[in-house]
Amino acid sequence: xxxxxxxxxxxxxxxxxxxxxxxxxxxxxxxxxxxxxxxxxxxxxxxxxxxxxxxxxxxxxxxxxxxxxxxxxxxxxxxxxxxxxxxxxxxxxxxxxxxxxxxxxxxxxxxxxxxxxxxxxxxxxxxxxxxxxxxxxxxxxxxxxxxxxxxxxxxxxxxxxxxxxxxxxxxxxxxxxxxxxxxxxxxxxxxxxxxxxxxxxxxxxxxxxxxxxxxxxxxxxxxxxxxxxxxxxxxxxxxxxxxxxxxxxxxxxxxxxxxxxxxxxxxxxxxxxxxxxxxxxxxxxxxxxxxxxxxxxxxxxxxxxxxxxxxxxxxxxxxxxxxxxxxxxx
Amino acid sequence: xxxxxxxxxxxxxxxxxxxxxxxxxxxxxxxxxxxxxxxxxxxxxxxxxxxxxxxxxxxxxxxxxxxxxxxxxxxxxxxxxxxxxxxxxxxxxxxxxxxxxxxxxxxxxxxxxxxxxxxxxxxxxxxxxxxxxxxxxxxxxxxxxxxxxxxxxxxxxxxxxxxxxxxxxxxxxxxxxxxxxxxxxxxxxxxxxxxxxxxxxxxxxxxxxxxxxxxxxxxxxxxxxxxxxxxxxxxxxxxxxxxxxxxxxxxxxxxxxxxxxxxxxxxxxxxxxxxxxxxxxxxxxxxxxxxxxxxxxxxxxxxxxxxxxxxxxxxxxxxxxxxxxxxxxx
DNA sequence: TTGTATGCGTTATCAG
DNA sequence: CTGATAACGCATACAA
Lengths: 330, 330
Hints:
The first copy, chain A, is α/β, with parallel strands linked by helices. The first copy, chain A, has three domains: 4-47, Orthogonal Bundle (434 Repressor (Amino-terminal Domain)), CATH 1.10.260.40; 61-162 and 290-317, Response regulator (Rossmann fold, 3-Layer(aba) Sandwich); 164-286, Rossmann fold. Helices cover 45% and strands 16% of the residues of chain A. Chain A is built from 13 helices and twelve strands. The longest helix of chain A is centred in the last third of the chain and has 17 residues, at 289-305. Chain A is elongated and about 90 Å long. Chains A and B meet through helix 4, helix 5, helix 6 and strand 2 of A and helix 4, helix 5, helix 6 and strand 2 of B. Strand 2 of chain A pairs antiparallel with strand 2 of chain B. The structure holds a DNA duplex.
């Protein structure tokens, strides 16, 4: 493989001239640049990335840190969708995305090692592995980073998240606009932050919502729905906090010979894993997680460019996907 | 941050001695090594990975090339499970895994760029982006690589895949051992290689299997099953080529008031996305895709160590997961 | 607009 | 067992 030196010799110019020409410096004449590039192409010259990284003092890469244990992709495909989006935004500007597993237990050591050894220019960190200690480390060391998901610990971090409260609002407003007033919410336990945030949003639009909670499982969705149907005044519409509850809910409705759409409306959040496959296909309020990854990548790029930048955060906007499970009450 | 030079100065030894001590060379006395490492730790010295990469002439990293378009993680979580496994095997030996999107259209240019610029030491390539042209490039250039999934083009590649034919055999043998002789296979079209391979396996154990084909959708699973139930001699057991067909199949059976287990047995492949959630939970023949990723990572490591190594391939072994949908016929 | 010279921080070879 | 020194290939500040 040809080196920059050989190209310079062939073109009869200095090494630095070749370097500048390849990097599109304006201090080299257009003609010269064109000529050098032609010769480089002819010689099959490709700059050595290892040398560039060393000379530039920057790797042009970012590490995505998260738990990558067995079954992670099945249990949380959203995360990998975010990773795909981030890859896209980073690659677009010549940055590589390195995927690295870590625990909340070793996250600090891992981050220190990456930054001390200068293996990457920035970090994308999934909120599930963020600890209080890490938040101190990140803010004290001016490490370019974006946390994916709102971190519980540390208000001084850069993070990006979706707005579950707003999602709840949108779901409730949709039902309200269809004419529903008698609505029930089937949610997870009060410790389930996502479910609770969605509920807060729902209540802000429909304060009189009936609320029932349980485990976020298909079975519980079925049980809670059955319970709900025994109420004196049966709800006209149901909001399920997630897909699993919605699946159980739909099953219970079908067993009760209720027709979703004619008799009752049903709305839930996100399409994964069932909403699209269920019959009827469910109306959902969804997050574009790929887009969220893109935004994370872009934010990280700006953090890398100006590491002195202030703490910042970014929130993605949920979208209503109308399908066949919501209609006006009869 | 301290450099190797400062550590050497502090320890009163040569730079090369520090380098060797840090890398655990046997040519340095144990005492000296311990002393130098202690001083290095005290000074907070971490070797600069950018300089190491440059000096060693190796990045200690691999690139995973595949299509990372929007929805990739939802549509194909298996692939990300493989990625997670590969990450684990590579990281274990100090290799980083870089994730990079690419099309079958630009795969050759991408591979050339990575290898010419020496950005990585090896490649993991998803079969879906492998072209004939790429297979020529890979075999001619002695590029360390592992293709994930059996490549259609190019027999001279290194690849790893699961054995769908064997999966079919295992499913059929399970039914046979339970006592079933009257079995039907509900599969995708003849162009669906996975479905066809599974069918070949099934037929090798149960040659008289009734075969029906259709689109791999829930609706078609339902339609085909209904058709099957109209047959003069109803099958005792059904093999569905995938989860979607199985879902539709189960729905049709329930609508026909047939009791899965008492009246009929049902077996399918892989747990994703429904098999675990369905009622009854389905017996499946599954692949440990995470383990497959680990094997891919290990194989790549050996390719990197000896690039002159011969073409090789590796096949993972499917496993029968007995659940509540298969029993002896009555 | 182009060329010169220096630095980037290790690793590895070879001599002692 | 240890040290001196030459790569490694490019970017960049500064000089011309």
